[in-house]
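Quick note —
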Amino acid sequence: MGWSGPLHAVTAEPFDHPWQRIRTELRGAVTDSVWNLWLEPLTLREIAGDAVVIEAPDPIRTWVSDRFGRLLQSCAAAVLGPDVRVELIAPGASLSPLAPAPHRPAGPAGTVGRTDAFNPRFTFDQFVIGDANRLAHAAALAVAELPGLAYNPLYICGAPGLGKTHLLHSIANYIRTYGDAVHPPTVRYTTVEAFTNHFLGALHGGGVDAFKDEYRRADVLLVDDVQFLQRKAKTEEEFFHTFNAVMEAGAQLVLTSDRPPQDLGDLEDRLRERFAAGLVTEIALPDFHARIVFLRKRVAQDGLEGVDPAALTLIAERVDQNIRALEGALIRIVAFASLTRRPVTAELAAEVLSGLYPELSRRRERLSVQEIQEATCAELGVPLDELRGTTRAARAAWARQVAMYLARELTDATLPAIGRDFGRNHTTVMHACRRTAERIAGDPAAYETVRRLTEALR
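Predicted structure written out below.
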């Protein structure tokens, strides 16, 4: 499926070459599917003054220009400055005369591009709200409206592809749009990987003081994927001091991770305690309604015409891992329709998805939490009223934990919704899922019980 040219042209530029830094910015701003399909094939023709000339293969050039033109401009500006202009041309096309401009230095040695280039597509308006992410969205918006005063630090956790990075960029874009125009706050976004590379480059290049100022003097510091601080002793130490400096200055700190602070077992206690000192909020898997809304919003945002609503329903039914997978499925279906000159129908969507997700070629029957409770009780020999009740007897407690774990794994229900079906709150469900995962990892009998139940329910 797709055009027949090479997916990636190998460049000979060193890592700190401006084009490689622009690619790094682009790579961090989009999903894997968007990168692989639309942006990785782009190659640099030349950089002349303030002009960046990029070659894009014929089948994708118009789409890239229309959908990702602003993003390309933003990422190029982050590396080469605000006056840069980006031009997309066909491979081998002759160049138009470019006005000469003074060369702008790429930046201090050891830096990995600027970290304050925000994806213009990631805004609160474009974030789809559902039961699975309502608290995280509300907290992020409160932080954007009142940096340093609402929730500090704000810690957002959840599996990959559920919108954590979207919320970080939304905060930045909101502050830049509605913040103090006279004294605009300094907003800095970074990933732990970029923070680590920047720090190590500063150590080797003698720019430690500049590095510290860059992060510690930010009014709003947004840090993605803090789970990768684990087992990086030097970076962890530096981040600890950065955290303290930002908080002592009254600045806002927002962190994201793929798990809650207490589950970062390889991180120092002092950092885990600081992460948990503010508001910790989780983003769970989106339910069917949220997936439909996301797809409709993406179709409207991209100006896609002729998309059959039944195709969106089918995508939402079959792709339920995360928002990133949902977006990737839509992009592939639209690309396939464009390249084969066919309309986006449910039949075409089924054809594409059967290759992407063969295990989902048949519509999965929707399980209810009650069905899981009843199956667990039958398997473990526990009365249903005990499983739903308050008894702490070991047998009933284990059955309850297993049922909560399976409800999280096999349904679209949110943590609060699961908790209500058990007469508990969402933190109890999180604890039960964690305890079950730990037990089946070390107890073969427990693993076999959960495996057998999972297969029966599926």
